[in-house]
Structure formats: C-alpha cells, structure tokens
Amino acid sequence: MYMPKSPTPTIQDLLPLTAPVFHILLALADEERHGYGIMQDVAWQTNDKLQLGPGTLYGCLKRMLAAGLVEESDERPDPAIDDERRRYYRMTALGRRVARAEAERLAGAVTAARSRKLFAGGKA
Amino acid sequence: MRWLSRIYRVLLYTYPREFRLEYGGEMERLFRDRCGDVARANDPLKTIHFVLQSATDWITTSVRERAAVVSIARKAAPRGFVSEWAVTILMYLFATTTLVQAYVIPTGSMEGTIRVGDHMLVDRTAYAKPGALGRYVMPYRDVKRGDIVAFLYPEDTRQTFVKRVIGLPGDRIRMVDKQVIRNGRALVEPYTQHVDPSIDRYRDDFPVSPEVFTTRRGQDMFEHHVANDEVTVPPDTLFVLGDNRDNSADSRYWGFVPREYVVGKPLIVYWSYDAPTADLTEWHVAHVVDVMEHFFTKTRWERMFLVPRSKEAQ
Predict the structure, then answer these.
(1) A122 touches A71 (CB < 8 A)
(2) Which of B67, B85, B100 is the last residue of a domain?
C-alpha cells in the first residue's frame, strides 16, 4: 500500500491496495472484528490461500490506522464472551470508499482480461 | 504447542520497540489462537505449513517494521542505522544459537524411543538456569524424573548425549535383574527396551559389582556415593539411563551428570535418516552421495515431526 506523504491523501493515492490490506477491509465491511476474527475471515474469503500471520496483520493495521482506513473501536461487540483486552477494529468512511475504488479497479482489470480471452468465469 | 508460543514471545523482541509495545500483546494472542487451531486439527502437514508460514511472517515483517523505523530515523539522525539493526541481528543470532539447536542421534542407547539417525531440535531454554533477565521472559521448569534430556557427556564435553532422567538429587537408585528400584520402589518403565535376555551382574544388578571398566567419574560414584547396594544421587547432579537398557553407556558406567551440563530438551524430530553411526557424526563425501541417492527411501518419513514424550515412571 502506498504510504501517503501528504496528511490528506486522495483515494487514488492509496491504490492499488496490497492483497492483505484489501482483504482486511473486506473482512471489516459488515462488522467490527478483532485480530483473530479478521484473520479467520480473510482465510474464509480466500479459501485458506491467504493466512495472515501476526506480523503481516498488525503491520497492515498499523499502516491502515495511519492512513485513516480503519479505526479502533471503543465498544466491545460482545463483552460477555470476548476477552476484554482484545482490540476491535472497524472500517472508516474513507476505508469504505477506498475499498470500493479498489474493487472497481480490479473489476476493470478483470473486464480487460476477459476481452483478451484470458479469463472466462465469474460474469458480473 | 506451548513451546512455540514461548519462542514466539521472544521473537517479538526483533520488532521495533514502539511496534512491539503497541501490538506485541495482540500478536502473541493471535499466534496462540492459531496454535490452538493447528493443534486441534492434529494434522502434521498443517503443523509444518503453519510453522513455515509463521517463520516467513516473522522474518519479513520484523525486517519491514525495522526498515520503516530506520527510514524515519535516518532523516532525523543518519547514524541510527547501526544501532537500529544491531538489536535485530543480535536477536536472529540469539534465536538460532540459544533457543534451539539441531542435533543428530549417533548411537542406539535410546532405541525404542529415539533412533540412530534422528535429527532433532533441542529446546535450549527448557531447563536453562533462570538468569536475572531470563526469569521474566520465559517460564523455565526444572528437570523432572522421566524427562528426556540432552546434555554434555561429562567425560568428553564435546559430545552431546540424550538419555532419560531416572534419579534426581537425593534419590536412591539400584537395579535388580534389570528392574530399576528408586527409593525402595520398583519403577514401571514402559518405554524401556531389552535386547539381551541374559543377566550381566554389573549392568543389570547395579551397583553391586563395581569390578568392570568404569571411568574416573564412575569410580568416584562407586567410592563415594554407594551405600547398602544403592547409589545416592548427590546434589546438583542427575542419574540418567538409556531406554535401550541393555545396550546403553549411561550413569551406570560413567557416573552422574552435573546439572549445568544439561543442554536442553529434545523437541521434535525434523528429519530421520537411516545411516550408520560414523556417517552421522562426521559428514563425508560418501555420506552426502548416499543422502542424495537415497533421500526418499532411507528417510524414515513416519518419524518426521515426532515429539519424544517425557514419561513419569510409576
């Protein structure tokens, strides 16, 4: 992921996203999750092809926090069953726009691939 | 899997201080959760995959986070580079030399439990004397009866031996017809193997006939620590025996192992290769050729990633 030099990066500055960053955003699209929850969801999204290790996950989260794509959540979604000390993350409005822009960018790339007969499946 | 978490906690120190303070706890928790998943899956292939993946994750991200710190620090003070990297490099060296050590089993004295040609990783932190600093970093535990330990051979400290702890300081040990009796009670030792049905007075009725070729340390044991046909283990030493009881050069022959000679605890067999003892202690061209030719047929795949279990004898 591009690290912004100016304090107010435009969405295009942040694209393209790396695979871990994009999948972390997807994991946070519907709900807040803690680190282990993100890791599990990313594994599910990718059929276990992308297993985020602790260093990769928290390194990405650090950069995403700095870029304003995610923020730490104050509330604990389920304090009864969850460990009090776990940190939960949620997607910001900027994060949602960036994820959408990245999805559009990828869709464009897929369309181009299809027009060159490199890819046949998954018609939208 | 607890030893993995313990190692991971130490490896976290390769990350820059700020990053570790901010995320270290969470990373450790995530790692432990993953360990739990993998342990539940109980699939050796998945375990290998997980370990390799974690190692890759650690190396790449610790370097990346360090580099991020360095690139910021460089602008402020260009000379921060060496001091920033020194810690990381020292930690890599520390991890490979202090935490674990690769070791090959050259003799058959533990046959039945550990075989000739087993290449093992030894956890050097397990029984380390807790130093002032180490006490806070890692949970040490003391050697227990029934533990398998790796130690420096007291008669020649260039060699490392692996045997089972039978006696702790203060224990009284004797053997009657191959049966070990500790503090007056006969041990049940399901892990032992007997290959010779005949009774050798010295070997099997220890320590009643100290006439054979004992070493200096063996003689010292017979002269100072035998009373009422029993050996009493002196302070800060261990009495060890091989599981291949009839064919093992152990404390019966060369005396006690000083506590500080204990190197660690055998963790896992990472490769087991069927080769004669001489080839394993000294690598030479013929052995390398042999390994290349017969890697797939002579590797004992069923022993891969085997964890030798410590068993408390009853």
Answers:
(1) no
(2) B100
Q: Is A58 on the interface with B (CB under 8 A)?
A: yes
A48, A62, A84: best to mutate for the B interface, most B CBs within 10 A: A62
**Segments of chain B scoring below 50 in pLDDT:** 132-133, 313-314
| A30-84 confidence digits (pLDDT tens) | 999 999 999 999 999 999 888 899 999 999 999 999 999 999 987 665 655 555 5
- Give the best residue of B61, B64, B71, B75 to mutate against chain A (max A CB count within 10 A): B61
Among residues A87, A85, A59, A98, the alpha carbon closest in space to that of B64 is found at A59
- pTM equals 0.50
In whole angstroms, what is the distance from residue B296 CA to residue A32 CA?
A: 48
Specify the pLDDT at position B314.
45
Please tell me the class of the A11-115 domain: mainly alpha
Report CB contact under 8 Å: A62, B25: no
**Shortest Cα distance, chain A CAs vs residue B10, angstroms:** 14
